[in-house]
Please model this.
Amino acid sequence: MKRVISTGEITVESAARNLHDFFTELMPRTGQVRSSSRFDSWAGGGDASAVRNRFTADDVVAASFRSVKIPARTAVALLDTHAAAISDVLASIPADLDLPDADPLQDLGPDSPARQLWNLLRERHSDGGGWGVGPSTASKLLSRKRPRLIPVYDSIIRRVTALPGPEKQWQYWHDSFTDGVLSERLEDIRRLSGITEPVSDLRVLDIVLSMHGKRQGFLAQEEDLES
Model:
């Protein structure tokens, strides 16, 4: 793993422990595993064939597991008023494409369907209303629908990696996978962790970074009420 900012290094061994704990550790207040561990699997997953090209109420619930608050107006837009436009774009984003195999321009570039959907979620509309979707919420909604292609970006990951911003991180992580070293590290981490959950390499990376940051004392910041 790459050196992180002000927190030392993430080793394969420490990452494997964190990955194992993410799915198995019981939370003191509830006696259950952390809710965020169900983000991908909740209600069969957001990329299941029956729902992969539309947002559902289960996607909104799953996103809430990742420490984001989705305003009512946003839920209405996702599930009703802008649902058709969103579905048209989602249908153009491959559901079986992994980030390392993506074409930097066709699949990730400024004119790609994925970027079009990102912009749609982030924009203000002609009626003057905003969706209340910040970059963290947008990334988690997209990641719920395309967990193999779209990375999560939030305040913890930003602090751990010092990435320049959500708009550039897709290309950053794509480039990081190109030499195969990162994929090999994630495979080693998954093997050492002993987990059997069917999550993508991209999700493993997300978990490793998030768990490391949280155990360094980083707290999620509210960044999702911006218009």
Summary: The radius of gyration is 17 Å. The longest helix spans residues 201-215.
